[in-house]
Design brief:
Blueprint (H helix, E strand, L loop, with lengths): L2 E5 H7 L6 H11 L2 E5 L13 E5 L10 H11 L9 E2 L6 E5 L9 E7 L6 H16 L8 E7 L7 E6 L5 E2 L8 E2 H7 L19 E5 L5 E4 L3 E2 L12 E7 L2 H15 L8 E8 L5 E4 L5 E6 H8 L5 H9 L4 E5 L2 E6 L9 H12 L19 H15 L3 E2 L5 E2 L1 H4 L25 E2 L4 H10 L7 E12 L7 E12 L5 H14 L3 E2 L8 E6 L5 E12 L5 E10 L1 H6 L6 E7 L5
Parallel strand pairs: 4-15, 5-8, 5-15, 20-23, 25-26
Antiparallel strand pairs: 1-3, 2-3, 6-14, 6-15, 7-14, 8-11, 9-10, 11-12, 12-13, 15-16, 17-19, 18-19, 21-22, 23-24, 24-29, 26-27, 27-28, 28-29
Length: 584
């Protein structure tokens, strides 16, 4: 959980001086944050030192990462103030940031905003800097996704450009320095800096570095590393330009919204922000920030049921105001307006959580559960245990392999082609071995046999686990499917052994071969040309229903020598893999 330090007396003054440490700790608990430490309780403070409160903040509450956010949220919670309304005030000539096409190589997105007529004190300035650091560490993923630049607007001239230049062509004086440097020299200069060096790897090896210029071609910032000394913010700054570059458009909008909503409080007209227009290389124009409230519909029945209380829709609406959520009752529905400060609210259950906090967890009535239930295994897990037991009793060893694998292991190494509508691909895999969710258990078992070649043959291994398949018909776009796979490796292929095991598994599920019965539910092997297996040595496993319709369960056969070579195996291998869910 992120931790913030807040001046004790300043916060208590803001809240009306009605708390001591013990009562404030209780308030924090009720609100869903935690007072970790009060520095004044540790002993004598040094002369001139002010007591600090160390507060733990939930990881998804980015709006509480500074004094402004915590004090405002607690003030609304205590009904000392109303939630503010944030406004984007159009300017006669809004500032513009033009993005060059080369930025797509490094950090393709940029957003901006202007805080006009800001009054800064030393405390406010430090809070502004601290919030940026907290956001960089949490929401911005240590500047990998998003990096923030803030500038004294009166020291630069628009329109601005966001470009990607060769590092040798970028020349400026970095923040708090006196000598001009180019991009390469900046990297070298900050190699030993305890703060900046943690971010150098983000652009160090890039052929071009992102850079923001003003109309006179003066460098304003070199994201994600450092701003320019020329546009440095001071206590005398009255107009602040915020530019934020990113690789993730969602995260950059969240970051901008948090920053401007927290500190627009200090503008001449509180809680107002001037927009910035961003023009991309394709001519598309966007105006930021986007502070419009999101609308989420819910019902009192749902919220009461989740929390365990009985409140009318009007009472629920009043309680949600304590959490800075505006709600309107329309018949049986409650339309909740979510402010730009609350990107953490994604579903109705998040509103229910805020309702529980507003009502008070300690006040939720304790109710005895009068529903009598009897525990029972999940049908699919019960079926899986039947299959596992049958195969294990036949003398086979169970393996548990990884759900993620490489694309080649799942396709090319099995001589299969990816048709594009089967596999779920990870967007940012950490390694080549974890690129996709497996669609077959066979690659994992082949890797298991490869790692255990030193043991005496035959090797008989099996697995009963889930695979993941794309399915556009379901909401999440993918679904799990329970498979059973068995693999026999020896000096001879011995196809009859895996076929015999398959027959035993089917019998345990009350399914017999067509050789033994010509009616009822039965199964058969249907010859097929399957690239994974030797030609003429592969077949589809077919389930035949009582009405004569058939369903393909999986495949069985002797693996192709090329497949064995791809998994560094030199002994023949026979295997089968079937979907067991049709037997539910």
């Amino acid at each position: 959980m992120p931790t913030i330090d807040i001046d004790k007396q300043e916060l208590f003054d803001y809240l009306g001086n009605q708390f001591d440490t013990a009562s404030f700790r209780e308030l924090c608990f009720e609100f869903g944050i935690e007072l970790e430490e009060d520095s004044s309780e540790k002993g004598q403070l040094a002369e001139g030192e002010r007591a600090q409160l160390k507060i733990d903040i939930p990881a998804n509450r980015y709006d509480l990462l500074c004094f402004e956010g915590v004090s405002r949220a607690l003030g609304v919670f205590l009904r000392r103030e109303d939630p503010p309304t944030y406004k984007v005030v159009p300017a006669a000539e809004p500032h513009r940031i033009t993005v060059s096409a080369e930025c797509a190589q490094v950090r393709p997105f940029v957003v901006g905003a202007v805080l006009r007529g800001v009054t800064l004190t030393a405390e406010r300035y430090q809070s502004f800097i601290d919030l940026q650091d907290k956001l960089h560490h949490n929401l911005c993923k240590k500047r990998e996704l998003v990096s923030i630049g803030t500038h004294d607007l009166d020291t630069v001239e628009g329109p601005f450009t966001y470009e990607a230049q060769r590092p040798e062509d970028i020349q400026f004086v970095p923040l708090n320095q006196t000598e001009s440097m180019n991009g390469r020299q900046v990297i070298e200069f900050y190699e030993d800096d305890q703060h900046i060096k943690k971010f150098l790897h983000i652009i160090r090896d890039s052929p071009v570095y992102p850079v923001v210029y003003d109309a006179k071609r003066r460098v304003m910032s070199l994201p994600p590393l450092i701003n320019s000394e020329h546009s440095k913010i001071s206590l005398d700054t009255r107009n602040i330009l915020i530019e934020i570059t990113a690789t993730d458009l969602t995260k950059v909008n969240m970051t901008l919204n948090i920053l401007v909503t927290m500190f627009s409080k200090y503008c001449n007209e509180p809680f107002t922000v001037e927009p910035v227009e961003v023009v991309y290389p394709d001519g598309k124009k966007f105006v930021y920030p986007e502070l419009e409230q999101r609308l989420m519909a819910t019902t009192g029945e749902y919220l009461n049921g989740i929390v365990g209380i009985e409140k009318s829709n009007d009472e629920i609406s009043e309680l949600l105001k304590k959490m800075s959520l505006e709600a309107e009752v329309q018949g049986d529905k409650i339309n909740v307006k979510l402010p730009a400060t609350r990107p953490d609210i994604l579903q109705e259950c998040d509103i229910a959580e805020d309702l529980a906090i507003a009502f008070g967890y300690n006040r939720i009535p304790r109710v005895q559960n009068n529903e009598a239930t009897v525990a029972a295994p999940h049908p699919l897990n019960k079926l899986s245990d039947i299959v596992r037991r049958e195969i294990a009793l036949a003398g086979w060893t169970e393996a548990l392999t990884l759900s993620l694998c490489s694309h080649d292991n799942n396709f090319a190494h099995l001589r299969r082609k990816d048709n594009g509508d089967e596999v779920v691909v990870l967007e940012n895999p950490k390694s080549s071995e974890n690129q996709i969710c497996r669609t077959l258990l066979l690659p994992g078992l082949l890797k298991t046999v490869c790692e255990n070649k030193r043991y005496a043959l035959p090797l008989r291994v099996f697995e009963v686990s889930d695979v993941v398949l794309k399915n556009a018909a379901v909401e999440r776009g993918a679904q799990n499917q329970r498979h059973a796979c068995a693999l026999y490796a020896s000096n001879e292929a011995r196809f009859e052994i895996v076929q015999g095991l398959l027959d035993e598994v089917m019998k345990s599920l009350n399914v017999v071969s067509v050789v033994e019965a010509n009616k009822g539910v039965r199964y058969c092997l249907e010859e097929a040309d399957i690239p994974t297996y030797l030609p003429g040595r592969g077949a589809n496993v077919m389930l035949i229903n009582e009405d004569g319709s058939s369903l393909e369960l999986g495949t069985i056969g002797i693996l192709h020598p090329e497949v064995l070579g791809n998994f560094d195996l030199k002994t023949p291998v026979s295997a089968f893999e079937i979907n067991i869910e049709p037997f539910l």
